[in-house]
Structure formats: C-alpha cells, structure tokens
Design brief:
Blueprint (H helix, E strand, L loop, with lengths): L9 H7 L8 E6 L6 H9 L4 E8 L3 H9 L6 E6 L4 H5 L4 E4 L15 H18 L4 E4 L4 H14 L8 E3 L2 H15 L10 E3 L6 E3 L10 H7 L8 H18 L6 E7 L7 E9 L2 E5 L12 H20 L3
Helix pairs in contact: 1-9, 2-9, 5-6, 6-10
Enzyme class: oxidoreductase
Subunit structure: Homodimer.
Catalytic activity: (S)-malate + NAD(+) = oxaloacetate + NADH + H(+)
Length: about 325
C-alpha cells in the first residue's frame, strides 16, 4: 500500500541520499536557535539535498550559523536576526520550516500554546507569503491543529495561497508509532510503517494500526524532562525527514508519501492529516483515510476538537489588523 513508502526514519533517509540530487534546495529554518531549530538545522546542513540554509531567530542565529558553517558539507549557511531581517532570510527559498514557538511544560497541553504562539506564527507566515510565496511551507510549531489554519488564512490575506504547498508537521506521530510498535513486536523500526491521521494533539492523533506494514507520546517526554522542555531531538528528526521527502519529490522522485496536516476534504473537518503523495509542486494526491477497523472509529471523537482549534485560529487571523 502507498503509505508503506513513508516508513523510513530520518537516519535511514540520510543514508539513502545520493550526492547527485538534481536540484539542491534552498531551505530556511525559522526559530533556528531553539531546542528543535538547532538539531533540525544540523540535519539539513548535513544533507546533500540542501545547497543553501538560512536561519532566523530573535537571538543567537549568527553564532549557530557560524558553528554549522564549519561542518564539511556542501551547504552554505547564514544567520539572520529578528523580524526585520526575515526578508533576507526568506528570499529565494524553496522550502521553509518553522519550529519557532514555546516548549510545553508539565501539565500543559498543545492547546495551551495557542496564545504565546499565535502572533509569532502569524508574523512568520506573513513574511513567507510576502518574500517567498512559491516556497513549500512546513509548520511544526505547536499547536499544529491551529498553526496550519493560521498559515492558510494569512496566505489567503496576501493573495499567495496554494493548497498544495502548506504542510502541518505530524511526522513525529508516525515516527513514534513506528518506534513503539517495532519495540513491541521486535522489528526494525525502519521497516515499520504506521499511518497516523487526524491532527497533532491528544485524541486527534489516530494511529491506523490496521494499516500498519508489516501487520503487526509526546506527553511522556514532557514529563520525563521535568520542566526542561518538550520533545526536541525527535521533533527535529521528524521535521528533517519530512523536508527530505518533500525535496525528493520536488526533484522528481516518484512514490514519495508522507502524512501531514493539511487543508482537506477527507473528513468532516476543514483540515485533516492523511497520507499524501508528494510531487514537484507539493501535494500531488491526497490518499485519504482508507479502510479502518472498528477500533479506529475514534475519528468521530477527534472532529469536534479539531473544529474548535481550527475555528479559534481562523477567528484570530480574521481579527488581525
């Protein structure tokens, strides 16, 4: 089944790359000095698929960029500071990844991040719409169930919206599902593929165990870190995996499939995560939910929460000046 193509981990992807990639991407990371941004930038720098990497954050990015530039890779790296330097960071980019945001603390849900991330996300998205409207936009800032509706509405406001080019990061849910099931079954995680649909918070995360190949968590990390942050390294790896898959597809590789939270008609909800066939211009085909088991009928429980998150962000953007 197509979703089996999405089973590779970030490490396996790095091993599979050829240095003869046709079109090396110009990528940007917004929020590059944070706990997710730095390891994500490191992974992108080390990929032969990336020829230029620009980094932006409110602080420290020149130092991060200088550090990365000492690594013997083909990518050139440059750091930018603050919103006033966003135009230079974004100009000419093919792919933009935004891990910018606030880490969760014990007792917090992803929804609790709405207020501290709302204005930051809108500012960054508006800059993308103005300075690299043709780029692929990969948003991994939480809460993803709300940040993607924000990105879509902001792009619409600027007349730059393309439904095939804005992606919400749910790859971490797939990486975790693959890892946990492989551990339970004594399998190689790189050979396990579990499609995860719905959204990226609580009950909206729906792993389709019945579609797992071969047949057969985030809160845990927050608690384990005891106030020192949320998942960063695994999130960075998942974000890099999605970027690499996307660039592979942009370079003409066929059969590239990843799950992502996007504008959708696959469920009774304006946005929904499903397996996507990626192509040169972004989403080539939404592969939908597929056949599900009675156990997986939890989709009905996820819809109200997703609708509430979506409505909250759409109203936020609508009221922006």
């Amino acid at each position: 089944m197509p979703s089996a193509l999405a089973c590779r981990t970030g490490a396996a992807l790095l091993r599979s790359f050829s240095t003869s990639a046709q079109n090396n991407a110009k990528a940007a990371v917004l929020g590059a000095s944070g706990g997710i941004g730095q390891p994500l930038a490191l992974l992108l720098t080390n990929s032969p698929l990336v020829s230029r990497l620009t980094l932006c954050n409110a602080a420290h990015t020149p130092g991060v960029a200088a550090d990365l530039s000492h690594i013997e890779t083909r990518a050139t790296v440059k750091g930018y500071l603050g919103p006033e330097q966003l135009p230079g960071c974004l100009k000419g980019c093919d792919v933009v990844v935004t891990p910018a945001g606030v880490p969760r603390e014990p007792g917090m849900t992803r929804g609790d991040l709405f207020i501290p991330t709302a204005s930051v996300g809108a500012t960054l998205t508006a800059a993308c719409a103005q300075h690299c409207p043709e780029a692929m936009i990969c948003v991994i800032s939480n809460p993803v169930n709300s940040t993607i509706p924000t990105a879509v509405e902001v792009f619409k406001k600027h007349g730059a919206y393309d439904p095939n080019k804005i992606f919400g990061g749910t790859t971490l849910d797939i990486v975790r599902a693959n890892t946990f099931i492989a551990e339970l079954k004594g399998l190689d995680p790189a050979r396990v593929s579990v499609p995860v649909i719905g959204g990226h918070a609580g009950k909206t995360i729906i792993p389709l165990i019945s579609q797992c190949t071969p047949k057969e968590a985030g809160t845990e990390v927050v608690k384990a870190k005891a106030g020192a942050g949320s998942a960063t390294l695994s999130t960075a790896s998942a974000g890099a995996r999605f970027v690499f898959s996307l660039v592979d597809a942009m370079n003409g590789k066929e059969g590239v499939v990843e799950c992502s939270f996007v504008k959708s008609q696959e469920a009774d909800c304006a946005y929904f995560s499903t397996p996507l066939l990626l192509g040169k211009k972004g989403i080539e085909k939404n592969l939908g939910i597929g056949k599900i088991s009675p156990f997986e009928e939890m989709i009905a429980e996820a819809i109200p929460e997703l609708k509430a998150s979506i409505k909250k962000r759409e109203e936020f953007v609508k009221n922006m000046k």
